[in-house]
Amino acid sequence: MNFSNYLAQLPSEKAQALEKLAELLRQQLPTGFAERFDGRMLHFEVPLSSYPQGYHAQAGQPLPFISLAAQKSHLALYHFGLYADEELLNWWTTAYTTASKYKLNMGKSCIRWKKAEHIPWSLVEELAQKMTPCSWISIYESKK
Q: Are the C-beta atoms of 7 and 98 separated by less than 8 Å?
């Protein structure tokens, strides 16, 4: 299954929001991240060609950075950089309160939105631009 087929199986609001998030990330992420769909989630990751060590938890897998998925009751953006970089997390949580009238619903790296209209698009765009593959690798290696 490819990403388009995945979207076709979702309710239209979720499909449209995920496609918009995916397109935003394609346009705004710094050069060097690769896109991959695994049948459940769309991933933006540091490819093995750039970081051969890959992800420590899954040998031979690229280093994950951002993933998107439609869960049963929400849309999810998983941003590993927020989990690993306290400064970025602090920026995000502060900026979110200004950019959105909705309460932030977040786990360690998972940002959840119940509806597409709850997504602060310009803030997500800014978040996407904040970390390059090189800076993500540096932070990742400092946390291993």
A: no
